[in-house]
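To close the section, here is one more complete example, presented without commentary so you can practise reading it yourself. The ligand is iron/sulfur cluster.
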Amino acid sequence: MSTQRILSGMRPTGKLHLGHYTGALENWIEQQNLLQPDGTRAYETCFLIADYHTLTTSLDTTSIYDHSIDMLIDWLAAGVDPDISPVFRQSQIKEHAELFLLFSNLITTARLERNPTLKEQVRDLNMESMVYGHLGYPVLQAADILLYKGNIVPVGEDQLPHVEITREISRKFNIHFPHPVLGEVFPEPAPKITKFSRLLGLDGKTKMSKSLGNTILLSDTPEEVAAKMRNAVTDTMKVRRNDPGRPEVCTVFSYHQRFSSPDTLASVEAGCRAGSLGCVDCKKMCAAAISAELAPMLEKRRHFEARPELVREILLEGESKARRIASQTMTEVRQAMRLGEQGA
Ligand code: TRP
Ligand code: SF4
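Output:
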């Protein structure tokens, strides 16, 4: 059996935060680096910058390039290795648009309107302002995945409906358009939910999100992390230092669970409950634990920030690798669909 391919992507909204890291990026890198017992790579990994997808919610494209580069630097700083995993922008590979168009005819509008992720967005935005392309968001995502014949798609829970739609489109294509040699052109990709999908925001209310301004960025310095942490919401019943607290309702404790060592975690929990640990000290320890994990990333970020040409080259190189795969897939698609002379 050939190596399974992992394909995932993110919309370029600028610098990434800890929620992106624990919810996706960390897992991408783990899969990228995973080896089989014989020393070969367990997976092929490809990571996509979904710049077309940002158009469905905003036509302001002034920062689309800068945001893409900022996000790419975060990926590289966190450990995405462009020699192993091609990184590329959707908009630079024409085949995304082409396959999207063909796939648009393999799914009904009723099916797309039933998509729970879309329904949530309709509730939050309003239907009047929703563009045609927004309905097709998952169809473009299906093209992203299937163009590279992705077998595994690591995503957060909110993306599950999109992967389900991708599976349906793949089945429908394979049934309608058997390939004369390959039989089936597309795999039926499986989603892979990331374990730590949700990291609470500093306000303790919902998940970390740029629009809510409750984030710690991967690029925050130790001073910035400490300053943000001072404003984090804790157990509101613990007012004075010596009041006993309830770690299970505390946002800061949820960060300790992810970033502190088991020993620190145990002593924080005991100290909080006993009222011997104050929130100010507890937050300092938490900020230090987070910054310790971010330190190597900060250093790598500086390396890439100082070399914009290198970052650009990495992107162009990734795009030329991606283009080769995409164009091969489209040849097979055209053959299967009998479009053009190759289909005869
Ligand atoms: N829709 C995804 C998100 O918002 C981003 C994305 C675009 C994606 N294309 C993809 C994710 C393909 C996985 C595979 O996070
Ligand atoms: Fe939260 Fe730490 Fe304060 Fe306990 S001591 S409430 S865990 S910040």
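Once you have examined the tokens, check your reading against these statements. DSSP finds 13 helices and five strands in the chain. The mean pLDDT is 94.
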